Amino acid sequence: MGRVHTSVLSDIKRLLTTHSLPEDLVMVRLSSKAKRLIFKQSVHKGVEIVIPHQANSYWVQEMTKERIPWIRDALQRVREIRNHLNPSQIEFKALGEVWSVNFERTDKIRNGLLVSGKHTLTVGIDPNDVFHVARKLQVWFQQRARTSLIPWIASLAEDRGLRFNKIYIKNQVTLWGSCSKKRNINLNRNLLFIPKHLAEYVLHHELTHLNHLNHSDRFWASFNRTLPNCQELRSELSSLNPNDMPLWASPGLDKV
């Protein structure tokens, strides 16, 4: 029985080679739990073909032949998404910064990432981990957000005579910011990706919550005194989505 299983795998791998499908992006495996032939795509594994243990080799080959166009399309999607995980350029609109990103072998870069020159990053690449660059960039991105957003909101608070307790920079999914009863303010680090005037709108919005926790008429009256065009900015911000940010900055990389 083991030889039959091995034969199925060998036959499918030969079929993939015949159609010039790269072995490094197509994984074929047998499963004792699978009850059907499965074709699935993920950024981490590429295309995975899961074959039930008792499957007939001829039937598996015929089914795989039918799915060749789908496999090609899926591989193209995987390649495109992986390219987004290794950006050549990062733009922080809120700060007016554009960073160039270069890549080197991991063993040449201490700690996996090097900041050199003006707005230049060099990141190590691990061929065995498609998320390696993104993870290194996220660590750097978190620090960049802290060193820019915290002083920024602190300066605005001082100008307005407001006092907060703590500022937390988070990798939030749906919120740009929030303020608690304890006067702690949470800011989404993705604020760096949006235009400066909208990022400042969010900072002023959360500062206004220090005196008015809900969105009452008193809140908007107070906010309007600080930013007379706050309603226009609110509409402009609502057209953006925290999820529409660079893929490498996503909070759930391994789920992509």
Describe this structure in words.
It is a single chain. This protein is an alpha/beta fold and 256 residues long. The strands form 3 sheets. It has a 4-stranded mixed beta sheet, with helices on one face. The longest helix is centred in the middle third of the chain and has 29 residues. The mean pLDDT is 90.
Provide a compact summary of the structure.
By secondary structure, the protein is an alpha/beta fold. The chain has helices spanning 2-18, 57-66, 68-85, 132-160, 196-208, 217-226, 230-238; strands spanning 26-31, 38-42, 46-52, 89-92, 97-105, 113-116, 120-125, 167-170, 177-179, 185-188. The chain starts with a helix and ends in an 18-residue tail after the last helix.
Task: Give me some keywords for this one.
elongated, 3-stranded mixed β-sheet, 7 helices, Zincin-like, alpha/beta, 256 residues
Number of domains: 2
Strand-and-helix sequence, N→C? Answer: HEEEHHEEEEHEEEHHH
Mean pLDDT level? 90
The amount of helix comes to 40-55%
CATH topology of the largest domain, by name, is: Zincin-like
Protein structure class: alpha/beta
Helix count equals 7
Biggest sheet overview: 4 strands, mixed
Strand order of the largest sheet: 4-5-7-6
Task: Indicate the proportion of strand residues.
Answer: 15-25%
**What is the correct CATH architecture of the largest domain?**
2-Layer Sandwich
Intertermini distance: 36 Å
The coarse silhouette is elongated
